[in-house]
Fold this protein.
Amino acid sequence: MKPESKPQWVDICSIDDLVPNSGVAALINEKQYAVFYVPTQTPSVYTIGNYDPIGKAQVLSRGIVGDIGGDLVVASPLYKQHFRLSDGSCVEDETSFAGSWPSKVEEGRVKLMVG
Amino acid sequence: MKNKTRLLVIGNGMVGHKFLENLVQSGEKEQFDIIVFGEEPHAAYDRVHLSEYYSGRSAEDLTMPTPGYYEEHGISLLKNCCVEDIDREKKIVLTNNGDEVPYDRIVLATGSYPFVPPIPGNEQDGCFVYRTLEDLDNIKAYAGKSKRGVVVGGGLLGLEATNALSSLGLETHVVEFAPSLMPVQLDPAGGAMLRLRIEELGIQVHTQKATNDITRVEDNQLRMNFSDGEHLDTDLILFSAGIRPRDELARKSELAMGERGGIVIDDHCQTSDPDIYAIGECALWNNQIFGLVGPGYMMADVAMNSLIGKQAVFKGADMSTKLKLLGVDVGSIGDAHAKEDGNEVYTWHNQPSASYAKLVVNKGFVTGAVLVGNAEAFDTVLQYKLNQIKLPDPPEQLILPRFDGGGATLSADDLPDTATICSCLNVTKANIFASIDEGAMNVSEVKECTGASTGCGGCAALLASVVNSELAARGVEVSTDICEHFKHTRQELYHIIQVEEIKSFNELIKAHGQGMGCDICKPAVGSILASVWNDYVLEEDHLPLQDTNDTFLANMQKNGTYSIVPRIPGGEVTPAGLIAIGEVAQSYDLYTKITGGQRIDLFGARKEDLPDIWAKLIDAGFETGHAYGKSLRTVKSCVGSTWCRYGVQDSVGMAIRLENRYKGLRSPHKIKFAVSGCTRECAEAQSKDIGVIATEKGWNLFVCGNGGMKPRHADLLITDLDDAELIRIIDRVLMFYVRTADRLQRTSVWMGNLEGGLDYLKEVVLEDSLGINAQLEAQMDSIVGTYQCEWKTTIESPEKLRRFKSFINSDAPDTTIEFTRERGQIKPIETALTE
């Protein structure tokens, strides 16, 4: 059991480490996050879980970013289901969630709110 | 089982086989205990395409039943076995082996024999007929020591035989009794045009020649002495002057016969003995013999239905034909000679392009037509005739060339439901609608369901128009848009990127799309950009377009790890290479397996280890195998003439050359090749996108085959190429595919959807009908010239290597990837998410 911790902003990398319109994985307290950089959108950074609940592997950061019916999504590289970057919900399966976490860019640094 | 009806099928040709196939498909076969008698040593084969036996198709390729078909369905085929007599009182037949076989019902499918005109001297050495595989073997053996060959008979069959002789490399002559070629199907003007075209090919045509006798002159040559006093010396004579029904068994059994031969049948294909049916070329219906396979198939269907107690009636058959003779398109419909009272004709002669068209009309309807040199109008005109569609105004537009790209095409809606769309397989418009009712959603699926357009393929355009117009009528939106971001097909996007010189996805979507793109359009555009400009796929602009496999240049497996496939061109690898691969696999503890494409797959590599693993493989001389890309995978080969006792060419050398040429080519889907060193075909080239099979003279090229879920036998594109020609033609085929195929469309499906099919592809890549071959070759040369091993480029760039780190904020490995062991190697364990 981990001690309850208060949510806080965690610095993960510089904005220059990200590739526009694609994702990276981040590791915080042994949990994996998928962080996406979409410079044309506001906000420009989105964070969902890296674990694909359908493919059952830590892969979502490696999917293709796009939009489906107006929603920003990432396509799972395993079986191609789409997960919304805004809330981690799955377009094809209402019962599957990847989870989502607040993230922001501050003075050129990318930060996630986890806890 | 007791009480089965004993059914004897006498004759195992195309029609006899079709009858058996129909019976199996009807689901009623279990009522019968079936014995088939075949006179030849082979099971039924495709006699219509017999001349292809000389251009690379083997006896097995021509065989109609798939291997094991008869056994699987409990049908006994007795080869080399003739029935010599039928005792209709005792209901037994007597075979040439002296066996007596009892029966309840008989189907006579004895076919026909070639008519040999009664010319004195026609049985000498060097005189042949053209009917069976054995005939072809004998002709080929004799042609080996001959220079000149003569075909007696300038009709349809005679010209087929001419094609065969000419493809054996003989100086070929045709001798015809009538004043012009194909006198039954063509009018004299059409026959003259055909003659002109054939003579251009170096074939010498002699019409209005009656042969008095054949004698032997010095040098052991044959001499044909004609009634006009002239003569022609030759080494070989091939009689192909029509057919006669094989009716001697029926005659001996005292069934009713026609005055000039043929077994009389009624509308149910029953002979004068109701327990005996006759079908195909041995049968005489309404005083007519039908010497085409289509009507024979119809009879097979009628006889089968009648036997199982269903109503079916043979009502005669349309004898219109369209075919390619010696490369010349010829079509004949109905009253080609305009003999009927009241018939009026329109004709169009085009001397420069050597084509001829004639339309015969009567009281506002089409009654006949002749087409030589260009038979594009055939389908439309035939539909006008068969369905009694009122002539368009003016009628001649049916046969005149289309100057504005418009012209008279028949709209699918004009046809009645009973209209036959595919006459080879007898598929009507109603059959096509039924297949759409059952869920077929496009032309390919309709083809698969109904068999339409899988015979000669001549109806492909009409079929597409019927299917698409019906789907549209049913409100099925036949959207060819690639996805919601682009209102274009892949082919259109390709064209836009090339013409407007677009170099990035962002440029393209800004100018021609909407939104941000998705996992459908991004990789498709990434692939087109790579095909057209051949940039490094991991440039920052292109990186977000790639599937994860392309992004990390490896194949993602179910647990998020990757597999690695070094290229092993042609499957040839040195012992040192094998050891290097083994050492890499051992030090990273990778699961190792030999693939179907003659190379080695290493599984279970972590993303962060990929660059180190590749650095070692590149050091050992390996390159990326592109197993992750929609691109050339492997060129499989057999060991070839270097080692094999049977090999006739160096298949490994050619495979390596081809693999090195096309490696890295990005395409709509993966591409697989194989090269076999002889016709034993150990590399299974005929199941590949590009298949190359060695011949004594060079290489035969097969295209658009597939294994996997939907196997497709590759089509023979061209024969006996030298190395340089082979590569040029593969360049064109591949580049044409890359340009025109849909996203994720393998070559087999592409071919299935290509209007005009194989003939069209031949026109484009062999005859340069679109005038693009030089472009296709130049584009391929440019891609080949800018090839780079993507892994080599990647490990040389520290910038790119950062992408392979497991986490952006940590160097820790991903601990959720876990393995157990099985048979001495790693095996992934599924990771459940734990909070």
Remarks:
- DSSP finds 25 helices and 39 strands in chain B.
- Residues 127-241 of chain B form a domain with the FAD/NAD(P)-binding domain fold (CATH 3.50.50.60).
- Residues 404-408 of chain B have pLDDT under 50 and may be disordered.
- The first helix of chain B runs from residue 14 to 26.
